[in-house]
């Protein structure tokens, strides 16, 4: 891992001199301007924005809620990330070019009320960021138009509205992918209240399009269930925080490497993208004025590859009320927590718990994560809170119980057990990964996972790499049951690379006596992403049925749409650079 960090720095230096231009446009990531030294940007000078909010439902006469219809475009525009940085060229979501933002508008949906979104591609003929022609990609390099498709992460929707990686389309639908579904996308919102996000999901271009700015928050609310909890509410006290990291050039352009760490194999692709500037809601190291009272923060890590291990100064703590798209059964207090790319931590912070007039949110996770043993991670600032006395009494609370009625994970309900193995391969004698596969198969290989609707499955996820991989399963929720380290992992890895058969390679023998790792209390509920520890086996219970409040009838065990039709669903690593290099596999759900 230390070697990888050095290789990435070397590749950045090479990229500054690279002549190959894979993208296009006026302000490019590989333009003539020098790479920006982030130490020249003053921290905490921009106020944290609250992104525009779009109501994903309508209100009929008499106050009844009805399905909402939205049209959201993807625009080639500019965005100011910092007071002292020139405007940056971005791709952004918005109801119009004038209102497009990075991140995009927050969509507010209601449980049980459908939201229909027509996603419109207004992007230019060529991308302004580089991408790699050796990866399996939505469209061949040189194709006119930027391919995009939108995935509602954590959403429970038919696969024709799930944003399949091969359902991409360019501006004006001039070109479409082989699994293209015509607009609008239908989101039933028939799932528990919680936090989702939407983002680009085009094959081989996800890391590039999200880096350009194509992401946004999505909430599903259920007032009847949530109002009795009396958590902090209202736009002033209930805020989305979308975190990501970026590098810039001195002219404000986003920087993305144009040369890969092993260009003989991949001329542009690198294993992970890390930026030196931390951005929250589109501003670099912003500040937020708060009162001495409780606030709710829905924290999304929208980075390509960076993990954040967050901590507050001034003696303040986090109280977790939800993880990913689902409320916890009971709140969990922590001083610090780790959030992987695409994970969401729903927390309450009580600023009345400190007499200080300011608090800094900071991160000390190694990059890449978990790093080499003995590495001392640098502590970096994320944002600052300026604390003022409360103007009025705080009537919000954090109850002792949140959503305890959700079914508890029970391994005995599993219909079958599968083994999912994560591999990294090296070519041309390098110790850097050049190809990443699940079960030694590429994305385009035939389907091997065929879960049955209405059942649950045990998945033993075997991580034979040095990286921690955030695993995301589309449509399904899952619960983490245990994590155990492998013993003599090099021996086991060598056997698996030759045979790809865990039983034949003696997995039980390699697990015997292996260290058991405690699943953090705030991550023991139902999730759609989890951090798969390196050189270990993570057992998860994957639920291919709706999350109900108790024992469900056969009809209630089915989704409100036909999961067997359409382009299908996928599961993948959510380090975007890995996902784009085929650490993703299709699923075919059957009945």
UniProtKB/TrEMBL annotation:
Name of the protein this chain belongs to: Plastocyanin-like domain-containing protein
Residues making up the signal peptide according to the UniProt record: 1-23
Subcellular location(s) of the protein: Endoplasmic reticulum membrane
Source species of the chain: Panicum hallii var. hallii
GO biological process terms, semicolon-separated: cellular response to phosphate starvation
GO cellular component terms, A-Z: endoplasmic reticulum membrane
Similarity comment text for this entry: Belongs to the multicopper oxidase family.
Keywords for this protein: Copper, Endoplasmic reticulum, Glycoprotein, Membrane, Metal-binding, Oxidoreductase, Signal
Cofactor requirements of the protein: Cu cation
GO molecular function list: copper ion binding; oxidoreductase activity
